[in-house]
Each structure stands twice: as C-alpha cells, then as structure tokens.
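Exercise 7. Predict the joint structure of the components listed below.
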Amino acid sequence: MKSEFSAFIDSLQNEITSALEKVDGKATFIQDNWERPGGGGGQSRIMQNGAVFEKGGVNVSKVNGTLPDSMKAYLKVDHGSFFACGLSLVIHPKNPFVPTVHANYRYFELYDEQGEVVDQWFGGGQDLTPYYLFDDDAAHFHQESKTVCDRHDKTFYPKYKEQCDRYFWNTHRDEARGVGGLFFDYCRPNEKHSLQQWYDFVTDVGRSFLKGYLPIVEKRKKTPYKQPHRQWQELRRGRYVEFNLIHDKGTLFGLKTKGRIESILMSLPPVVQWHYNVEPTPESDEARLVSVLKKPVNWI
Amino acid sequence: MKSEFSAFIDSLQNEITSALEKVDGKATFIQDNWERPGGGGGQSRIMQNGAVFEKGGVNVSKVNGTLPDSMKAYLKVDHGSFFACGLSLVIHPKNPFVPTVHANYRYFELYDEQGEVVDQWFGGGQDLTPYYLFDDDAAHFHQESKTVCDRHDKTFYPKYKEQCDRYFWNTHRDEARGVGGLFFDYCRPNEKHSLQQWYDFVTDVGRSFLKGYLPIVEKRKKTPYKQPHRQWQELRRGRYVEFNLIHDKGTLFGLKTKGRIESILMSLPPVVQWHYNVEPTPESDEARLVSVLKKPVNWI
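Solution:
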C-alpha cells in the first residue's frame, strides 16, 4: 500500500501540475527536492506570478522515522516509528473572482518495535475559498465531491462535508474559511471498508479534483476586476493566513516537527492585507460573502 | 495599585498617541471603545495611512472577571477571579528604513473567593523590528532601555534584554523577530523590590518609550526608498505575522479567551507578502539583516 499510494501521488502531482500549467498558459512549476533529516523527503512544485495563478504549490512528501514526541502526543500512541506520504496543494489565483483551492490526500502507517504495521489509515479532503461568492461555483465543487463520494458510499458525502465545515472554521472570527468541500481522516480498514476500498476512494477523490476546480477557473478567470475587488481579495486572504497559522493542524504539526518551512508555508497567499475593523458595505457582494460564511450551507 | 496603574496607562496612551500624531503630521488616531462581556473593556486607538505610519495601534484594556479555564491552566492557578490592565502598541511605518516597534506594559491581580488579592505582578517590554538594519538605531534603542533599567536595578537590563531575545524568537525559522529590547514578566513584590518599586520601574520604562523610538523615526523617515526596498519590508512583515499568530502568547491568549479580535490583531501589518523560498542576494543589506537575526547581539 505504501508504494502503491506513493506512486499514485507522484502521478497525481504530474497530472495536476500539467493541467494547471496549461490553464495558466504563462508560468510553469519549478521543482524543489528536499530531504528530511529524520528520514524521507519530498518534491515541492511551486508556481508564482502566472497569468491566472498568482501563487500555487503542489507538493508531495514521503517521510518516515521515529515518531517525534509531539507527534506521539498528537496521535495518542507510543509506537516506535511511522511512514507518512501525501500530496498537498494550495492555489491562489490572481483574479479575485476565482476562488482559492486547497486539497490534501495522505496515507499513514505506524509500526511496532519489530517493524510490523500496527495501524494504517488514509486522510484528506478538498475545500474552496471564494472571495466573491458565486453559488453555482460552490454547488459545482460540492456536486463533484458528492459524485465521487457516492461511487463509494452514500454516507460519505454528508459526513465528510460536515467534517469539512467543522474543520475549516476560524473560531476566533466565528466564520468559515470558505464554502467547504470534503474532509476525512483516520479512514482505517473496518467491517465496512477494506484498506483497498479506502485506497480506491481516496485516489478517486484525488483524480476528480481537477473536475471540481478547473471549470470554475475557466469560467471566472477573465472576469474583469478593479482595484477594490483586488483589495477585498487581499483582505480576505488575511483570514486564510489566520486559519493556517492559528488553527490548521497540518501546518502547526509541520512547524512543530521541524518540517520543511518553505514547503509548509507555500500555502500562504502572495499578497495580503490587514486593515483595522473592515466592515463591508451593507447589501454588497462583500457583505453577502461574510454573511454566508457565518453558517454552513447545503450547496446541493 | 489597580487604579494608580490604570490612570498611568491612560495618561501614557494620550502622551504616545499625541507624539505619534505630531511626528506623522497627516493621520490621526481614531478611538474605539469596547466592552468585554465577562467584565471590563478597553479603548483602542488606531491610525492608518499616515504620512509616516502606515498602520499603528495604541490600545488600553482593563478587564476583570472569573478566570476562563484556559487562563487558569496557563497561570497554573485555580483562583476565582482576576483583574488585568495594560497598554499595548504596535507601529508599522511606511518607509522600509524605519523599524516597526512593539511595546506592552501590564499589571495583573488575582483574587481568592473573598475578593482578597492573592497574587499581583507587572509585566511588559518593548522591542524593535527593522527591515534594514542600522546598528546605530539598534544601539540607541537598547541604550535608552538600559538607561531606564539602570535607574532601578543594574541587573535588570542584561536579564530583560536576554529574556526579550529568547521570547521574540521565531523557532520555526530559527531567527529573531527583530533586534530585541526588553521583556519582563511576573514582577512580584519580593525581598528586593516592593510592588511600588516595580510600579516605579514599569512606569519609568513606559515613559521612556518615545525617547527610544522617536529619534529613530525622525532620522530615517525621509530616507528615499524604491520598490525593491518596499517589497523586502512586506516580505519581512510576513515573519512578523508568523511570530504573532504562531508564537506570541499574548495574541494566542487573547484569541483563545475570545478577546476583542480587531484590537488584538491590530498588530498585523497592513500589507504583507509571502513568496516561495526568498533568498536575499549574498552580501546585500537584506542578507546582512537575516544573518544578524540568527544570533542575539549585544548592541551596547
């Protein structure tokens, strides 16, 4: 399973970066390979200053070794060693009418002293963060997420959609980071789903990612915008930074376990603003976004 | 002591905001009064888009009530109620050659069930964050900090300077936020210093703040700069955001205890950039700043 999922994320990284380069038409991804002192490493692929994508990262990492203490406490285990691999992506488009997207697909194994697998699970998800809200876009992203979930288990979409709403919640602002999508974790072999079935599910979600996001990009990337739209986007990107640095478990986990900083923080938007106490004009598009983010919506 | 220190921070807020308005010459502070649902409140004073200061906040808060559980755990007590008041300021100048400054002066009381004071202490400090490093400026800021410390106890400056270096450390980057200054906490009445003596010390530091910072502003505010200087400043401001959202105890404490978000996050710079893996040109001014921040310096 280790090598099967590793091969999958490599192939998905190629597929996604090629497709994004094609849509962008100007910028290409640069690749940075890095090694983790404790074991393993990764390939970061980063695009900056594209025609469509202002900044984006599609990173693969495959790490292994002894569990750091912080990780043991987090996972509530005292096992000896681990293997983890995954693909993580965050895309920040330039045009304020194109939403930011994030996705992550990962696999984890824990070993006992003899090197036998004692636990293994998949996790991941994908979520959309618009700056201007088009209900159609949110509905499309959720519909694609539901379609792929339904192929595997009809209970998945409602459950993982709700977990996503709960996870990407900026508690200190009492608002959602965006319009959500899917979030699943600790998908272990059980009486209903074998490890292979979880693999089939997670890889199917990964393969469907572009179908959920690219049509939205194509539809909105030429929408004309002015400086105030751009400013609103940069202010809202501040919320994205707040979520990732204050609440996101993956980011904090990476920082606390001394992961590769530049690969972890590639998720931060390229240009961000914080002004004091910004209140959108009542009844404006900006005000509507904020009000919708106050409470999870059923987009389908 | 409560009322004495409360009156002091009110008066210091007036003194500092007046002086900053005078130096800026264009923008003025707006005042926002807020109430804390659990008890107390504050006066935030915010300046934006000044001629010299791009964004700044000089906030006073005086809060009281039952200790939230998170605060009990943090302070390692199970006492019933508390009073806390303080002045917090962060100033982000527009010109990349003028450093950002932060200061905080605070007083804390804990009460038992009968309302008797069972513990009380002062805390605070001040630190400087340059984007381009002028050794003279760092030395001046530290000299003023030392002068005021020495008036009270010759052991204060070396101790509080070192605590400042330790506190404002971006562990995930292995670098200092800036060139430091002073940081002190839990200054309780003891065999060497009475509560009144701590009051005298902390208020003396507060009153000397402008002497440490304003001469630097005056000296640098007209330095001509170009877009690359500005860009470097905005990139380095990213480190400021990272420190405040990932590590700063005051910020996290405020967010977790549901403090007033806009007053807490006034510390975030107005415009910030994150690019992937920025490496300054070797031997440049930018490279020198980064290398100096790798290890605390004795500026005097």
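Discussion. Chain B has a mean pLDDT of 94.
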